[in-house]
Amino acid sequence: MNLSIAAVAHSYGDLRTIERLDLAVEPQGVVGLVGPSGCGKSTLLELICGLLEPSAGTIAVGGAESANERLAGCAYMPQRDQLLPWYSAIDNAGLALRNRGQSRAQARESAAALFERFGLAGFEASAPQDLSGGMRQRVAFLRTLVSGKPVLALDEPFAALDAITRGEMQEWLAAALRTDPRTVVLVTHDVEEALYLADRVAVLSARPARIVAELRAPHPRAADRDAAITDPAFVAVREEALRALHGGSR
Fold first, then answer.
1. Which of 248, 245, 210, 213 is nearest to 20 (CA)?
2. CA 139 → CA 30, 62, 89, 135, 173, distances in Å?
3. At how many degrees (to 10) do helices 104-115 and 133-146 cross?
4. What CATH number did the domain enclosing 244 receive?
5. For a tag site, which of 29, 164, 172, 243 has the least CB within 10 Å?
6. Helix (H, G, I), strand (E, B) or coil at 87
7. What DSSP assignment string belongs to 158-205?
8. One pLDDT digit (tens) per residue for the chain, 250 residues
9. How far apart are CA 46 and CA 98, in angstroms?
10. Is residue 240, in this structure, part of any structural domain at all?
11. CB 155 within 8 A of CB 45
12. Residue 86 gets which letter from DSSP?
């Protein structure tokens, strides 16, 4: 499913957060959004998912423009995993299915089919507090993916992780999206993460956000993250992105 953002602006009262922003994401494309803190990246995800309405312009998910239709086509993964501490890992993973009317047994069966592929086999009955940070993020992403929605809005999914775990999770997510491709908009502060995971990176200015540069990630990229991020072509695009980010933060 494609995503189209045309001349979108947004304000909270007198506070302008986004100013005439245009962006298109092709079906099963992955676009990364980077920009200064507070520039409106998370607000843009909420607009895409129908949680907010733009002050001007249009957003269409698969051609559907209303907030309810956009929400029906999008799965939103916020910065924190937001796992329910009174639910087991498998019940957290199946929460979206329960919300759609499936029984607990049906939701568990659907989620269980993915636990091994997500490196979670054997932890189905574990409480969230007994899981590592990386495992909690895998459960949260599984919950997002199992919803079956064609568009994924990921808001800094690895921001709370240490550097080593974050690198491992980036590699894992890249593999997961190769296996089960979706249309993805990824918000991150990490230019390297954006270029490794996305096909294209949009650099946003300071608030009110506008796109100051669009860069295509090098292709093909090695599946191994360390090999990918040290490739000279990758390094060159990363430096270009950082220059655009620095210029747009002024």
1. 210
2. 21, 27, 7, 6, 12
3. 120
4. 3.40.50.300
5. 164
6. coil
7. TTTS-HHHHHHHHHHHHHHHHHS--EEEEE-S-HHHHHHH-SEEEEE-
8. 799 999 999 999 889 999 989 999 999 999 999 999 888 999 999 999 999 999 999 999 998 999 999 999 999 988 888 899 999 999 999 988 888 888 999 999 888 888 888 888 999 999 999 999 889 988 998 898 888 889 999 999 888 788 888 888 898 889 888 888 999 999 999 999 999 999 999 999 999 999 999 999 988 777 788 999 999 999 999 999 999 988 866 6
9. 23
10. yes
11. yes
12. T
Does residue 97 lie in a domain region?
Answer: no
As a whole number of Å, the end-to-end CA separation of the chain is 35
Overall domain count for the chain: 1
Closest by CA to 74, choosing from 95, 97, 50, 98, is 50
Burial of 240 (0-12, 13-18, 19+ CB in 10 A): middle
CB 211, CB 200: distance < 8 Å: no
d(CA 142, CA 124): 12
Cβ contacts of 171-174, under 8 Å, gap ≥ 24: 171/223, 171/224, 171/225, 172/119, 172/138, 173/141, 173/197, 174/223, 174/225
**What pTM does this model have?**
0.90
